Amino acid sequence: MAPTYICRIASPLPSFAGSRGPLIGAPVATIIELDGEIDIFTSSAMREGLLRTMRRSTSLLICDLSRVSFCDVTGLAVLVGIQRRARAMGITMGLAAPRHRVVELLRLTGLDRGFTMYENVSAGQPGQRTGTETWMRRAS
Fold first, then answer.
1. What does the pLDDT profile of the chain (140 residues) look like in tens digits?
2. Beta-carbon count within 10 A of 45 CB
């Protein structure tokens, strides 16, 4: 059986009255949880999902990479392309909790300087996550 790659898209709860943050009802960040391997077989589906999500994103888009076990150059190309589109739309994109292998790949390519990096998702945004949307693609 082929491995399954799942991406979960979650938004945090809005800020509460009296807090110093966005207006009540406005989400503070869009969090995209990526799971599995990002490679030539999965990058196309990931790109489509990220583009779809970015169209309804807040001004902060965080990709949670804590469950990404592998990323190749096609995966990096997707992340760079999404970051460029996000920037053009006034959206700040960050990467949260990448595993050691992904950090090394970003460092070796110099891309670690081009992304805002967070130790974990909580460091990138305040609030709790509420709902998730999932899309799946099976590798051939």
1. 333 344 444 544 444 343 344 434 445 788 888 888 999 999 999 999 899 888 888 788 889 999 999 999 999 999 999 999 999 999 999 999 999 999 999 999 999 899 989 888 876 554 433 333 333 333 33
2. 17
**Residue among 43, 49, 29, 39 at smallest CA distance from 96:** 29
DSSP single-letter state for residue 16: P
Query: Using only C-alpha atoms, what is the Rg of the chain?
Result: 15
Contact by Cβ (8 Å): 37, 69:
yes
pTM of the model: 0.71
At a CB cut-off of 8 Å and minimum separation 6, what does 140 contact?
Answer: 2, 41
Q: How far apart are CA 124 and CA 114, in angstroms?
A: 16
